[in-house]
Every structure is written in C-alpha cells, then in structure tokens.
Specification:
Chain lengths: ~220, ~220
DNA sequence: ATGTCAATATTGTTCAACAATATTTCTGTA
DNA sequence: TACAGAAATATTGTTGAACAATATTGACAT
C-alpha cells in the first residue's frame, strides 16, 4: 500500500514526498533546498520541482527568497502564537456548534483510545499521531472541506514545530486524559463546556510549546 | 500607482493578474484556460504560466483536471454553503473575542461610512467593495496572519460567486445598515451581541446567495 | 444514428540555454 | 594581517523546443 498517487500530477506527488520529509524532520529548519540537488535526488526536472516548491511555500512549510532559493521554514515564537490562535478559533468553534450525533465524535473517541494504547506501549510518537488525529476529528465536526484543508496546512506547520523539540513524551502524553474529558463532554451533548475545556487545553499546549522552543533556541 | 509588484517572481505576478480577471468576471466559470493561449496572451513561457495556475488552483479559483487542463471554478450550492460556514466560524469568532480598543474597529467604521457614501451615489459595485473591506476588517480583529491569508482566499472565491449573479444592488445594499449596527455593538464593547448579529447577517446573506444562484442556474 | 479507428490538438515532463542575481575567491593596498 | 573591491563561480529566473501520454475531433463503415 505504497499509495504514491500515481494519477496525480508529478508536482503534487513531489510536494507530498517533500512534505513528508519536512514533518519527519529529515530536513532541518532553515536549511536551503537547492533546485539542482533535489531535482537530481528525485530524478525530476527542475521545472517540476519548482512547481512543487511553490505549493509547499504556499503551505507555509517553505520560505522563498528571491534569487536565493527556498528554505525550510523556521518556527518562531510569533508563528507558534499565530498557529495556536488559529487552533483556538477553529477547534473551539467546531466544538461549540457540535451536534451530539455527529460521526466525527466517534473518530474522536477512537483517537483517544488509540492514544491511550500507544501511551501504555511507551510509543510517544504514536501518541503524537493519535493526538493529531483527535484534533483533525474535531475540525471534521464543522463539516467544511475548506476548513479541513486549511487545518491540514496548519497541522503540517505544527508538526514542523514539533520536530524542533525533543522530549515527545512530555509534549504529548499529558494531553491524552484531557482529550478523553473533552470527548466525553461532546458525547454527553455539552458542546460549550467542551469548547471551554479545549480553550484551556490549547492555552496550556501553547505555553508548553513556547517554553520548549525557548529552551531549544537558547541552547543553540 | 500601477504596483505590478516587480520584485515578486513572475508566477506570483501572473497569478495576481489572472486572479483579477477571475474576480472581475472577465473569465467565465467553467471556461477552459488553454496554456498555449494564455502564455501567448501574457507573453510568458508555458512553464511560468503553469506555476501560476498551480497557485490559483490551490486557492480554489481554478480547477485542474488531469490531461485536460485548468478550468475556472464553477460556484455550486455546496461551495456557497461551505464558504458561509467558514465565514460564520471566522467572522463570528473574531467578533466574539473582539477587544474594544482594537484598531480594526476603526477600519470597520470607515468601511461602513464608505459603503453608505457609495450607496448614496448608487454605485453598487462600490458598495460591494466597501462591504468586502468591512468583513476583512472583522477578520483583522483576530490578529492572525494565517487567518487573514485564508480569508483572502475565501473572499476571492466569494467574489467569483458574486460575478455569477447580476443585481448587485439587491445583493449588497441591504447589508449596509446591519454593518453599522454590528460596528456600533463592538464599539460599545458588546462583542457577543455583535457576533450573534453577524450570525443572522451571514445566514441571511447565504440564503440570498443561494436563491440568486438558483435563479441563475435555472435560467441556463 | 452509432461505434471504431486514425488524425489532430493539448497537456505532462524533460532538457538545454541564457540572463539576472548571489556567493565565493582572488587580489591589491593600507 | 585585515579589508575593500573586483573577478570568477554558482544559483536561481525564465524561456523555448522537444517528445511522450492523453484527450478530442473527424471520417468512415455498419
């Protein structure tokens, strides 16, 4: 099940491959991505590669400087603050108007179960993925393809931030039980309380993130 | 003040030019955009044009079909519903957490004033622009560059929908006074009431839009 | 009218070239 | 040595042509 999306245009497939490299941390923030090197590496033409770069730049994962090339975006304090501002708006909004019978709630519950299982197996990056699934499910509550698409972009940027840090246990584990509580609230048709809980969740996560970034940058 | 953004890469400038054509209605929805024809028209290479097409496709203004080319996106019922779902989420959210002293409130007031002036001059497309400025100012309340950027994309799609209709007077004028009321509410530090008012505003606008699209499509 | 097959046009992708701009290396001078 | 400036080099920006893969058109036979 390699699923290399053979039907899609080359640039899209390329963008997906590079995105994977970016969020897996194989390409360091700030690193320059040479057109010649990458077109060679992926065995595609420079033109096709440039199309892919444009897409990823629009996604905020790459930064483009005129006549200097593209660089892996470097997460900053202000970008983290901005990302969490977006998350509060979207996730709390989606929860607040959540309808008790919405199928996405089932996905939220599944993500919580998965996160717990991964945590018990001490697989912290698994906990992280389950966590991301949980929040994606929350966005699904809003039933908007555009919001889903937008959130995917934000989530990719967030993963880029995660890659900057180490300590994934301390980063993801504490939130598993909060996810459970929030899920229970929407299951019991208390969307406003769920949204309120999510707001404190995100504020806490933001602080954790900023603190971690601070430590990481002063070490450098 | 032509402001052709001479510093930007060619593909970005191209994308902007084509976007202008799209939202001004010079390119009809569903129309196919031939690479050969447009690269000739703008006197650029096919490669550069393709990069621009990719950007606009990502913005939802163009649709890309494999081996068939790009087409101007055709607004549908579902896309309008989706767009207004996004607008409710973003605009109501921004208003709800609005801070009385925020500079964007001043921009809202200015947009209202401008809209009134244009309406009195019976310049309906001017009313429309002022209206768009008003809603952009509301998004500014959230102080997020990512939300602003996302809203720009949504606004462009919305303008594409507007182009499909005629009757701009009936489409924009009724909302000027509502804008005034909402602005007054945030000026008086009643953000929740402003958000509630905005929700009814957007529901009404959505219905108007859907009705108009229905008429336009059954005529075809 | 309908379906089949060749002819044509369009997109998908690559390659090679050159201009414009950045970066590095070299050089001469204080 | 340290440093400013100039030459040399490398990289991006953009173009044009080429060819394969796919889609559209049109002619023809039934």
């Amino acid at each position: 099940m390699t699923d290399d999306g053979d039907g899609l245009p080359l640039a899209d497939r390329l963008a997906r491959r590079i995105r994977t490299l970016l969020i897996s941390g194989e390409l360091a923030p700030g690193q320059r991505l040479s057109e010649a090197a990458f077109s060679e590496r992926f065995d595609v033409s420079r033109n096709s590669l440039r199309e892919a770069f444009r897409l990823l730049t629009k996604d905020g994962l790459l930064r483009h400087e005129a006549n200097r090339g593209v660089f892996v975006a470097v997460p900053s304090m202000s970008s983290i603050i901005d990302i969490y501002r977006v998350r509060r708006m979207l996730e709390c909004g989606a929860l607040r108007q959540a309808w008790q019978q919405h199928p996405a709630i089932r996905a939220m519950r599944e993500a919580v179960t998965m996160a717990r299982r991964e945590r018990d197996a001490a697989n912290w990056i698994g906990v992280g993925s389950a966590n991301m699934k949980f929040h994606a499910a929350i966005i699904d509550l809003s039933d908007s393809v555009r919001l889903n698409e937008f959130y995917e972009r934000i989530a990719a940027e967030l993963r880029l931030c995660f890659g900057l840090l180490n300590d994934p246990e301390h980063l993801h584990s504490p939130f598993v039980e909060m996810n459970d509580a929030i899920t229970t609230l929407v299951e019991n048709d208390k969307p406003h309380e769920a949204a309120a809980q999510m707001e404190t969740y995100l504020n806490l996560a933001e602080r954790t993130m900023l603190k971690a970034l601070e430590r990481a940058s002063e070490k450098a």
